[in-house]
Amino acid sequence: MSRSKKLTPNLLKQLVLEEKQKIEKEAKEVKAKDMANTLANKVDYLKVLKIHEAKLARKLKKVMRERAKIKKLIMKDL
Fold first, then answer.
1. Is 3 within the bounds of a domain?
2. pLDDT tens, residue by residue, 8-43
């Protein structure tokens, strides 16, 4: 014998309301102003990371040039 219940409109409404209550407990309302600040902070952080990336790229180029010079000197000595 099956233990399943027949899904009636009243039972369906009850299930939907229970799920709605669970979601409302878990979900937090955020004001648009706060969301905008969060988005602005992320954009600012992205800009900072881009600047940092540019600095690291310059350092990497310098290291690569020095490495090439040293490699030429080594090959010349051989």
1. no
2. 999 899 999 999 988 888 777 777 777 778 888 899
Task: Determine the average pLDDT of the residues in 49-64.
Answer: 97
Quote the number of domains for the chain. Answer: 1
Number of H helices, E strands in the chain: 2, 0
Measure the CA–CA gap between 76 and 70, rounded to whole angstroms. Answer: 10
pTM score = 0.50
Domain that holds residue 62: 9-77
Residues whose CB is less than 8 angstroms from the CB of residue 11 and which lie 6 or more positions away in sequence, other chains included: 5
Q: Residue 41: CA atoms inside 13 Å, Cβ hemisphere, count?
A: 6
